[in-house]
Amino acid sequence: MLIVQKYGGSSVANAERIQRVARRVADSHQENQQMVVVVSAMGDTTDELIDLIHQLSPQPSERETDVILSTGEQVSMALLAIALEALGRPAVSFTGAQAGILTDNAHGKARIFEINAQRIQEELQQGKIVIVAGFQGMSQEGHITTLGRGGSDTTAVALAAALKADVCEIYTDVDGVYTTDPRIVPEARKLEVISFDEMLEMASLGAGVLHPRSVELAKKYQMPIHVRSSFNRNEGTMVKEVENMERSIAVTGVAYDVNVAKIGVYDLYDQPGIAYKLFKTLSEKKVNVDMIVQSATRNRLNDIAFTCSQADLPKALEIVETLLPEVGATSFSSDDSVAKVSIVGAGMVSNPGVAASMFETLVDEGINIEMISTSEIKVSCIIKADAIKTAVQALHKKFNLA
Amino acid sequence: MLIVQKYGGSSVANAERIQRVARRVADSHQENQQMVVVVSAMGDTTDELIDLIHQLSPQPSERETDVILSTGEQVSMALLAIALEALGRPAVSFTGAQAGILTDNAHGKARIFEINAQRIQEELQQGKIVIVAGFQGMSQEGHITTLGRGGSDTTAVALAAALKADVCEIYTDVDGVYTTDPRIVPEARKLEVISFDEMLEMASLGAGVLHPRSVELAKKYQMPIHVRSSFNRNEGTMVKEVENMERSIAVTGVAYDVNVAKIGVYDLYDQPGIAYKLFKTLSEKKVNVDMIVQSATRNRLNDIAFTCSQADLPKALEIVETLLPEVGATSFSSDDSVAKVSIVGAGMVSNPGVAASMFETLVDEGINIEMISTSEIKVSCIIKADAIKTAVQALHKKFNLA
């Protein structure tokens, strides 16, 4: 049995918490034969380092920023190894480079392309618990890289896949994946199992427990993820492939995202390449566009609406304004007081009418739907932000998720 | 022209000081073609990390301790690279491992056995300023190691030797090497030049500017060291080989050390192997013995006196007490209110009577000499600690060092 565990920054925020993680790892080590543990940087370490960097340069070198940020995990991993040895457990820590995690050269958002796990395997065979720095790797040219958002989860899943682990356990500050946010719906229920595809939708839609990137990787390598709390010993949620899913329930969960802004562009030329020009430019300038809706043609002129994060709104508006003449648009508008509510479920595809039920529920609550986007396993609606709580509660109830 | 510069922890203690170092490096880079800069960890970073480690274990793994401590230099080196780039100077930072600094496996006090400087040379050829983490390297097995005390100076000298640099500049908080401590003798004079051998004696005797280890290495590779202040642009002191030194002055400087304790062991058997047994045991238990004096034999019984650091005194006394029966000693004593004063000078060997002049000077001041030790280029005396200031001042005057 080989298990990969991952503990986040709040789980290793100080010496006392590192000792608690060490005890938990030691207990798991008794039950299992081999263990690899991935850790993030302690608490706010990364933010403090970023502050220091910005005192020196408004546009610091990404290569050097990675050199600095990677020290956060290097400290926490070795502290955990020391805490484990204090419990009498042989342990050894490895940086991303030492662990053989090879990435591309995209500093700050590098992608893993190969793991050469030989050193880890040698230490495991000697009975050692191997601690690996999350969030980091090494480029082929020998530079230190960091993986960007969701990096430590991705490290854990990638290592689990490379080592052919039995399971990858991700420890967070919640018990598992819920049917919706328990802060909004107290009756929200912890899911025992969720499929990769459903988790991917939940993760992308702001459920926040796992980064979509790590779920994608887990799906690719069919590596089950066990999402659990680092504060209790409860079973969490298994994220895994669920074949032939013939469930009576069509909807698994309700997700929402309030970090949404909407932009409307009016009266564009109805010509091929116009929408392409707009969204290609937004993409080149790193504006992450989420939903796109193009309205029916009136007099050979189009309206297009799209959403992005609120942080990207100023940049998106600037781009739209600059492009107005080129795309022949007459005007544009924006609204940052919107939110996205979504229902997710792999059973949806075999249950027609689910989307209609959702719309009906929102209408019954007097909530206006501004945009709609659907996939095989989810339906998302853009609504006014101040209606989000009502919407989530009503949908959770409607689809019997409690 | 290739210069290696080294800046200590106080020179890079915060963002503002790092910017000052960056400006200084940039200025040197204009004058010279190629530059390598070695940095220590920022200010108290190392102490803070050690505190954290000791919260987890009283006897932390030396391997893991090195993993943690090495992050201090990793942060400061990349911050300096970022500060240089903010000044428009292309720079790149390397950890000890990336810089190809290979060491033995003695964690916490590793010794460099080889530098594979290929990566550094490639970056230098591209016109980049190369920043290297001091104090650290990598073992042949790929573990991160630290070099222990004087480590950053040693890194700088070793790199300078490997790269065949023209000079190694060590920046400290003093102007250079003085004839003696200016805090005790205001007339103390900065030396323009000092030989490796003299510097080695001065360094070992507590002058504090350079660690003896880095001076030894510089002597071995005949690498001149320029000791300068990071707070002004004055010329400092050149430490280099001085051939055929026929100077009128016999004495170059007066050094002193107040961190000294003296132990006397009385009436040992006058048999071969007795002193060996005592000092072998002390060495095995890591007590660093400095001076040793064996008195003339009275009735086939010996007295031995030796000195060690005050920190080692309790351990030394414990060892002596345990060994008393084996070495046949009747009693022992200790005194931690002693100090060592030394005169150093390569000209001493061709100037007989220098030692006698020293003893005469001390006697004239009413200072009792408790132990004497000599080498070709120095004479050291153990005296009462409360007389050290008078002794240093009198010797500095006697040998016309002002």
Question: How are helices and strands ordered from N to C of chain A?
Answer: EHEHHEEEHEEEHEEHHEEEHEEHEHEEH
Residue share in β-strands of chain A: 25-35%
Oligomeric state, counting identical vs distinct chains = homodimer
Work out the radius of gyration of chain A. Answer: 23 Å
Give the secondary structure arrangement, pairings included.
The structure is a homodimer of 402-residue chains.
Chain A: E1 2-7, H1 15-31, E2 34-39, H2 45-56, H3 62-86, E3 91-94, E4 101-103, E5 112-115, H4 118-125, E6 129-133, E7 136-139, E8 144-146, H5 151-162, E9 167-172, E10 193-195, H6 196-207, H7 212-220, E11 225-229, E12 237-240, E13 253-269, H8 274-284, E14 289-294, E15 301-308, H9 313-327, E16 331-344, H10 354-364, E17 371-375, E18 378-384, H11 388-398
Parallel strand pairs in A: 1-2, 1-9, 2-6, 3-6, 4-7, 9-11, 10-12
Antiparallel strand pairs in A: 4-5, 7-8, 11-12, 13-15, 13-16, 14-15, 16-18, 17-18
Helix pairs in contact in A: 1-3, 2-3, 5-7, 6-7, 8-9, 10-11
Distinctive features:
alpha/beta, 18 strands, homodimer, globular
Task: Give a description of the structure.
Two copies of one chain form a homodimer. With 402 residues, chain A is an alpha/beta fold. In chain A, 36% of the residues lie in helices and 27% in strands. The radius of gyration of chain A is 23 Å and the shape is globular. The mean pLDDT of chain A is 90. Chains A and B meet through helix 1, helix 2 and helix 3 of A and helix 1, helix 2 and helix 3 of B.
